[in-house]
Amino acid sequence: MYIGDYLGRRAIYSPDKLAIVDAGKQPELRLTYAQMNARANQLANWLQAEAGIGQGDRVAILARDGVEHLDTFFACGKLGAIHTALNWRLHWRELAEIMANTTPKVLIYSAEFSEAVAQLQNDSQAASLTHFVHVEGKGVPGSILFADAMAAGSGEAVTTPTLSEEDTAALIFTGGTTGLPKAAQVSHRMIAWNTLNTVIHDLQHNDVYLNVFPLFHTGGLFVYTLPQIILGGTVILLRQFDPAQVLDLIAREQVTVFAGVPTMYQLLTQAGNWETAVLTSLRFCTSGGAPLPVPLVEKYTHEKQIKFKQGFGMTEFGPGIFALAADDAIRKAGSIGRPNFFVDARIVDDNNQPLGPHEIGELVLKGPSASSGYFNNPEASAEAIDDEGWFHTGDLAVYDEEWYFTIKDRKKDMYISGGENVYPAEIEKVLYGHPEVHMCAVVGLPDPKWGEVGLACVVLKPNASATADELMQQMRRSLAPFKVPKRIEILAELPISGAGKILKRELQEKFAGE
Question: Residue 281's closest CA among 313, 258, 264, 312?
Answer without folding.
Answer: 258
